């Protein structure tokens, strides 16, 4: 198929682009490069030995989005494009609601106009909110604790309503947990703008010398070592889940399907630090700071539905994730270069 990947220059999008190409699909990337470097495209071309059509476009612009669909024969869309920093969403809620929801509207409207009915949505475990049950299953009610999470909840509801109104749609909602790791080549990986919002890239930047130390937010949770426990999934496993979901919706008679993409395993902050020290051979200095508002003690995925229905499972361990992250970070200490 010819697959449009919105946000295809981003962290998860770029790894998915490579796996789509390896699976024999053609890929069109649409990205405004507000949170990604254009230099990644050359690396994707080199790694895949294939050409990639790229549109530099603000997908909140309906006319510009329509132009992409008018210019290309698109069969399916994998939608990553959107702002994703939880803390920033609290500080800038209007920006997050407008960007994330308007982007989804523009893409879905253009798809509808051009008869494109296969849509894979990049959702998040944040849609499970503050549910006290630590193992998350797809049938749990959704809610959120921040504007970023609410944009995911709202877009999921839009997609449910769309599938209910028109059963010709084939929609996959993928709720994933904590993506980490990098491509085995070390040529692409996570390159956050500014101060990292997530644990693994912050640890990697401490290891490579870009930051002095890590802050561990809370060491008095009801967990084995007192630090927060999360389900980490290698970005390559996550990308494979998107390809599997795309294959599945092409053969199912269900208008909408929801799958967790996680490892089903849980690691604490201190366990991640220890694994990264093993991978890098370097000490990771850290200081304990107060808990952050909204942080939960522990949660992880029940991925059994995706294992069963997609024939997919996460195969890489936390040590694999740290080794691949360190390879990327040590080979690219300053991230992707500017063009």
List the helices and strands and how they pair.
Elements: E1 2-6, H1 11-22, E2 26-31, H2 39-48, E3 53-56, H3 62-71, E4 76-79, H4 86-91, H5 93-113, E5 118-124, E6 135-136, H6 147-165, E7 170-176, E8 178-180, H7 199-208, E9 214-217, E10 229-230, E11 232-234, H8 235-249, E12 256-261, E13 267-268, H9 269-280, E14 286-289, E15 300-301, H10 304-310, H11 318-331
Parallel strand pairs: 1-2, 1-4, 2-3, 4-5, 5-7, 6-15, 7-12, 8-11, 9-14
Antiparallel strand pairs: 10-13
Characteristics of this structure?
339 residues; alpha/beta; Rossmann fold; seven-stranded parallel sheet; 11 helices; 40% helix
Describe the structure in your own words.
Helix content is 40%, strand content 18%. By secondary structure, it is an alpha/beta fold. Strands 3-2-1-4-5-7-12 form a seven-stranded parallel beta sheet, with helices on both faces. Strands 6-15 form a two-stranded parallel ribbon. A two-stranded parallel ribbon has the order 8-11. Helix 1 links the parallel strand 1 and strand 2. It starts with a strand and ends in an 8-residue tail after the last helix.
């Amino acid at each position: 198929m010819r697959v449009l990947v919105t946000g295809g220059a981003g962290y998860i999008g770029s790894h998915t682009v490579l796996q789509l190409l390896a699976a024999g699909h053609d890929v069109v990337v649409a990205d405004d490069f507000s949170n990604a470097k254009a230099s990644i495209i050359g690396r994707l071309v080199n790694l895949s030995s294939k050409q990639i059509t790229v549109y530099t476009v603000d997908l909140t612009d309906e006319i510009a989005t329509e132009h992409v669909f008018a210019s290309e024969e698109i069969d399916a869309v994998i939608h990553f494009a959107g702002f994703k920093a939880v803390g920033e969403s609290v500080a800038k809620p209007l920006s997050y609601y407008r960007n994330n929801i308007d982007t989804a509207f523009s893409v879905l409207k253009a798809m509808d106009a051009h008869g494109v009915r296969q849509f894979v949505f990049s959702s998040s475990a944040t849609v499970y909110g503050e549910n006290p049950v630590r193992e998350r299953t797809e049938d749990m009610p959704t809610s959120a604790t921040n504007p970023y999470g609410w944009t995911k909840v709202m877009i999921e509801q839009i997609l449910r309503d769309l599938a209910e109104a028109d059963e010709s749609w084939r929609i996959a909602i993928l709720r994933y947990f904590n993506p980490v790791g990098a491509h085995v080549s070390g040529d692409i990986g996570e390159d956050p703008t500014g101060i990292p919002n997530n644990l693994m890239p912050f640890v990697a930047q401490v290891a490579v010398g870009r930051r002095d130390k890590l802050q561990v937010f809370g060491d008095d949770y009801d967990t084995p070592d007192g630090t927060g426990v999360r389900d980490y999934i290698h970005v390559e496993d996550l990308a494979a889940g998107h390809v599997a979901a795309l294959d599945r919706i092409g053969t199912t008679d269900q208008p909408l399907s929801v799958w967790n993409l996680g490892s089903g395993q849980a690691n604490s902050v201190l366990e991640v630090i220890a694994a990264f020290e093993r991978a890098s051979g370097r000490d990771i200095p850290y200081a304990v700071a107060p808990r952050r508002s909204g942080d939960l003690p522990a949660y992880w995925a029940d991925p059994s539905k995706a294992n069963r229905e997609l024939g997919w499972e996460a195969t890489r361990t936390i040590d694999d994730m740290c080794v691949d992250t360190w390879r990327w970070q040590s080979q690219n200490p300053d991230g992707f270069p500017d063009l």
